[in-house]
Amino acid sequence: MIGILDCIGIMKICAYNNNYEYKKHLKCRKRSNNNKIINENEYKKQKENNIIYIVAKAFIPLENNEKQINEQKFEIIQTISEPIKCVHQLGNPDILKISFDSCTSNGGQELFIIGRNFDPKNTKVLFREYKNDGLLGWSAEAKIDKKYLHQCYIVCTIPPYKRLCQGGIVSLTIICGTKQSHPINFLYKP
């Protein structure tokens, strides 16, 4: 027996339909004079619905003792997956531009970082120096000004370098939870 998988698709509960139903509900509510209790939270949930289903439909030809020309009967089997919630997840943090790429070893200057995918709840700006063997030699965390921490920009205070008399090239990395940006070079001048 040969089965034909004719249709597979993704069915999404359309936000347009939910908005239409919500507006229709509001119009009916304004017109009605009876005191019905209407659950507003239910409509808000439907409006923000981000659930999809994977739908598969198969046409299985039925075995027929009598072969009829141009007339074949099929059994249609359709299945729908469990609901799949679609949630936008942040990608890795990405540094696009910084206000300057060097400062004195004393630090203390405000650094403006423009980028994307910064998590306002859990972000660290780290300055790191690695030894020749690749191991971490020094690390310091910049103090972030929480008023200016957004998904697209950060304002922070540069920490002092470990040796104030000497300078060095360190890497600047942004860490958001378990994700981190590609390091960029930052120069401390003596």
From TrEMBL:
SUPFAM superfamilies: E set domains. Residues 95-190 form the Rel homology dimerisation domain. InterPro entries: Ig-like_fold, Ig_E-set, NFAT, RHD_dimer. One of its GO terms (cellular component) is transcription regulator complex. Signal peptide: none annotated. GO terms for molecular function: DNA-binding transcription factor activity, RNA polymerase II-specific; RNA polymerase II cis-regulatory region sequence-specific DNA binding. It comes from the Eukaryota. This is Rel homology dimerisation domain-containing protein. It comes from Meloidogyne graminicola.
